[in-house]
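2024-03-11 09:14:02 INFO worker-7 job=invfold-0412 stage=load source=structure_tokens
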């Protein structure tokens, strides 16, 4: 009985120790590293983001396959940090403050 308990305990400890956790996604600031724009007042402006990522027309083209397109807003060119938070790995859509939707990839167009 003692050997059975020891074997069960060893098996339990071994399986717990062999569990590997998926690497956490990097925050936006971590992903940018040294390229993260510096700010005088603690906030990054959309103009700093646009220096590397392009203007809203370019961003809108890059996300044209998303419905609705998050970079084609009726609010115009909002600050990037309104959705893209430095301390998070995924955007938090400011649109959802008023609207209730899920952004999805557009269905591929049928060939003519």
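2024-03-11 09:14:09 INFO worker-7 stage=emit residues=112
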């Amino acid at each position: 009985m003692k050997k059975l308990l020891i074997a069960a305990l060893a098996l339990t400890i071994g399986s717990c120790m062999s569990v590997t956790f998926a690497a956490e996604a990097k925050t936006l600031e971590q992903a940018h590293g040294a390229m993260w724009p510096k700010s005088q007042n603690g906030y990054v402006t959309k103009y700093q983001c646009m220096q590397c990522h392009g203007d809203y027309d370019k961003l809108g083209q890059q996300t044209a396959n998303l419905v609705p397109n998050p970079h084609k807003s009726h609010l115009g060119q909002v600050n990037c940090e309104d959705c893209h938070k430095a301390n998070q790995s995924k955007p938090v859509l400011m649109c959802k403050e008023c609207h209730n939707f899920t952004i999805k990839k557009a269905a591929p167009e049928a060939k003519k």
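2024-03-11 09:14:09 INFO worker-7 stage=report msg="Confidence is low (pLDDT under 50) at residues 7-21."
2024-03-11 09:14:10 INFO worker-7 job finished
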